[in-house]
Amino acid sequence: QNLQHEGEKLISTHCCYCGMQCGMHIRLDEKTNKVVGVEPRYDWPVTLGKLCPKGVTAYQTIDHDERITKPLIKKNGQFVEATWEEALDLIEKNFKKLQKEHGKDALSVFGGVSMTNEKCYLVGKYARAVLGTRYVDYNGRFCMSSAAGGFMQTLGTDRGSTLPWPELEHTDCFFMAGSNTAECHPTSIQWLWKARDKGAKMIVADPRETPTARIADVHLDLRPGTDDTLASGMLHLLIKEGYVDEAYVNERCNNYEELKQAVEGFTPEFTSKITGIAVEKIVKAAHIFGRSPRSVVMFARGIEQQSKGVDNVRLYTSMALLRGQIGKFASGVATFTGQANGQGGREHGQKADALPGYRKISDPEAVKYVSSVWGIDPAEMPRAGVSAYEMFDEIEEGRIRGMHVMCSNPAVSAPNLQHIWNGFNKLDFLVVSDFFMSETAEFADVILPVTSWAEDEGTTTNLEGRVIRIRKVKDPIGESKTDWQIMKVIAERMDKGHLFNYNNPREIFDEFRLASKGGKADYYGITYERIDQEDGVFWPCPSEDHPGTPTMFKEKFGTPDGKAILPIVNYRDSGEVPDEEYPLYLTTGRVVFHFLSGSQTRRTEFLMQQCPVPYAEMHPALASQYGLVNGGKVKLMTRRSEMELEVRLTKAIREDTVFVPYHWGKELAVNVLTNPALDPVSRMPEFKVCSVKMKKA
Ligand code: SF4
């Protein structure tokens, strides 16, 4: 039962942070029109009234004192307030000048997936149809791209979960790889606990004994970057021990014989040698997983943010395939989507190589169809661009001269940050749309004040693939505009206003439904009314009388012949492995109190009290070799940069590994150290593995 406070309105919406998209009511004071708190939504079927510390405090960013409320223009190195007219004049002048002098591709767009589906859809259209540039990509490249690439290659369609979350309660075994669910998607844990109460087992593969690993039946404490070997070792044992569902595999998978051969050498002893996990634990995990009638393989950035991320996803997905688990009740495979709309945001065409509906920009039929929806000549559709990190290579080469960043803070979240900072400094013109002065915004020539998540309506797609409604709580603060309104006014300035003739998000959603029609991520049958009536609708949903698809791949996969493609992997090392000069592993990740680049959570008092600064977490045995003590200072050095951090000692980490959370900027940004080695398919940088040396600071 939610508390209805006198003089307040309760508006039903979802948390702005992670892909769980927990249901909440925002409390609005009717007199002051200020947001004063939240109430959990007990009736929301995915999260049942649970919120994590970030969700409970998310409302505090809405009316925050530090909100940017007017356009800002940089003059002599200082930001000064300006009118929208002045800001737009400057943008029009510079965008047109750069394109006249250097061609259409001189401009670029860097998007984000914390925006609604409506806005994510428009980012691709804005870049390609308004600015006419091939250079568009987004922060999901650093988040979900390896899961997307791995699912596409194996299952033929990329929906992050093949099953609805409430079914997890009925699962017998969770195999979790590189996922610290208890901290990163905390409200998910309730489903795992419900299943454990009924006897389910949990296996967790992670170099750290995270809060998730602590509650596991088996913790596979592998060396960073050896996930492909561990998965292959598990596949080897599933085959050798007779745990393969042969009928399912024969009927529904290709390449089984090839996979068998490929993992032949991955005996428990060999797997143990490469991963550092004890043989007994590997064998025990395989038996538990192999004997469970219903199992779900779950993973997250731990296996995905690697230069082998796509291969990792393919191999772990194959564990579910060999057991015949995908397409069935309370079974399957799932990745934990990082950002609010990490699923929807990657489907609608803001990726360098994709058009709405998860179509490929290299497919002439897709170009023809989407051009017809947009009302442009197919010949005007730019070719594929480059990935988020590679855009900064293009800046260095002088090919990209201007950029518009929306809903993203790559000055903290990208790898090898000095390269990113150099790129921002080199740009002739940078526009940033944001509602706080992020580290990226500080580089801008013009900052456009954008509405927060509670000042506009639209839809997101949660980590299950369920399309849900985000509701407007209050009118925009100050002079801020929504991202779609900003793209619209710039389109008008670029003489393309006719392509952005929208009055509200519903009109954008209706166009987007049509643009997605017939694609892999087909939203055509989803309407705002259906979402309200049905507690969200799962895609694919090709017509208004289609029920949506809570369980994916019941009969066939999304590949041309309907069969899953088991992988044949070329095993290789991570981009960097420890050597004499840099003898340790560095890995990065999240803490429960902060979200991604921290731009919002670092402005939330309670969360900062809990975790004010980053730290270097390491084993006491390792620390003692370097004369380091808890609370002392350490200097970490990689081939890219160096930084000083406070030491935090814990026995819950391997003795060869240092962990640092990445939610801070500038001199506290661990991404100055990380390796930009890219996965060859997903172009995901290797945030999770690099080699490091250290000394007492
Ligand atoms: Fe839920 Fe994620 Fe928000 Fe926490 S951050 S309340 S888990 S959506």
From TrEMBL:
Can you tell which superkingdom this protein's organism belongs to?
Answer: Bacteria
Keyword annotations for this protein, in alphabetical order, are: 4Fe-4S, Iron, Iron-sulfur, Metal-binding
Which InterPro entries would you find in this protein's record?
Asp_de-COase-like_dom_sf (IPR009010), MoPterin_dinucl-bd_dom (IPR006657), Mopterin_OxRdtase (IPR006656), Mopterin_OxRdtase_4Fe-4S_dom (IPR006963), Mopterin_OxRdtase_prok_CS (IPR006655), MopterinOxRdtase_cofactor_BS (IPR027467), Prok_molybdopt-oxidoreductase (IPR050123)
The 4Fe-4S Mo/W bis-MGD-type domain is annotated at 8-66
Quote the SUPFAM superfamilies the UniProt record gives. Answer: ADC-like, Formate dehydrogenase/DMSO reductase, domains 1-3
- Pfam families cross-referenced by the UniProt entry: Molybdop_Fe4S4, Molybdopterin, Molydop_binding
4Fe-4S among keywords: yes
Q: Which CDD domains match?
A: MopB_CT_Fdh-Nap-like (cd00508)
Q: Which SMART domains match?
A: Molybdop_Fe4S4
Cofactor(s) annotated in UniProt: Mo-bis(molybdopterin guanine dinucleotide)
Matching PANTHER family:
NADH-QUINONE OXIDOREDUCTASE SUBUNIT G, RESPIRATORY NITRATE REDUCTASE
Annotated protein name in UniProt: Molybdopterin oxidoreductase family protein
